[in-house]
């Protein structure tokens, strides 16, 4: 797989009019193939393995918030990075998830070719599936290199996306509490 990717990167380098045999580029196809595999390693992960049964019984009945989880993803339109942070809140229903697992879930979906809206939904649905929570809210704020380095070249705009499930969707007070926790905590 890496060999095949590496071959394609060599062709890309040639297509750009560069000489893939010059010293600085000699190992670049292999490096680039490895880097790209790293950046999309989420395809090789599964929710079950990642969670590793780290779901614990708890009678907490307040919103749990995990804020400012940094994320690095690749837009599926240009294969350029988008970079930002993710906030996840949930209202447990007898079970809580190991803290680190939220960041692992974010990475599993972020490390793929993505659009931000789908990424947000996939994270929310995974958290709901794993915890059986009464409600889940996910917000992502990100900057897209395809809008900054090329195209419209806007350096200061960012995109916010959110997905609210269960009580976060139905109950305005729960949703407001989540939003104010994200803003103020
Ligand atoms: N909704 C959404 N759009 C995205 C995301 N990442 C990139 N895009 C957009 O995908 C669109 C692709 O538009 P096209 O017109 O097909 O491609 P393009 O000619 O390269 O577009 P420009 O970026 O406007 O130059 C652009 O508007 C991008 O800004 C994302 O995560 N969500
Ligand atoms: Zn893009």
TrEMBL record:
| Domain GTP cyclohydrolase I, first and last residues per copy | 7-182
Q: Give one Pfam family.
A: GTP_cyclohydroI
NCBIfam families linked: folE (TIGR00063), PRK09347.1-2 (NF006825), PRK09347.1-3 (NF006826)
> Subunit notes for this chain?
Homopolymer.
- The name this protein carries in UniProt is GTP cyclohydrolase 1
Alphabetized UniProt keyword annotations: GTP-binding, Hydrolase, Metal-binding, Nucleotide-binding, One-carbon metabolism, Zinc
Write down the SUPFAM superfamilies for this protein, in alphabetical order.
Answer: Tetrahydrobiopterin biosynthesis enzymes-like
Protein species of origin: Larsenimonas suaedae
Q: Which gene encodes it?
A: folE
């Amino acid at each position: 797989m890496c060999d095949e990717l590496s071959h394609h990167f060599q062709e890309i380098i040639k297509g750009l009019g560069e000489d893939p045999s010059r010293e600085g580029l000699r190992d670049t196809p292999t490096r680039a193939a490895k880097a790209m595999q790293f950046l999309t390693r989420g395809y090789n992960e599964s929710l079950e393995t990642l969670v590793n049964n780290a779901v614990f019984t708890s009678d907490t009945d307040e919103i749990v918030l995990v804020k400012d989880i940094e994320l690095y993803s690749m837009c599926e339109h240009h294969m350029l990075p988008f970079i930002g942070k993710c906030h996840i809140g949930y209202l447990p229903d007898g079970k809580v998830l190991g803290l680190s697992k939220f960041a692992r879930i974010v990475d599993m979906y972020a490390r793929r070719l993505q659009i931000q809206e789908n990424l947000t939904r996939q994270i929310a649905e995974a958290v709901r599936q794993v915890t059986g929570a009464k409600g889940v809210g996910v917000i992502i704020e990100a900057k897209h290199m395809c809008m900054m380095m090329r195209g419209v070249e806007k350096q200061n705009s960012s995109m916010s996306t959110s997905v609210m499930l269960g009580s976060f969707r139905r109950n305005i007070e729960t949703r407001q509490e989540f939003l104010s926790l994200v803003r103020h905590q």
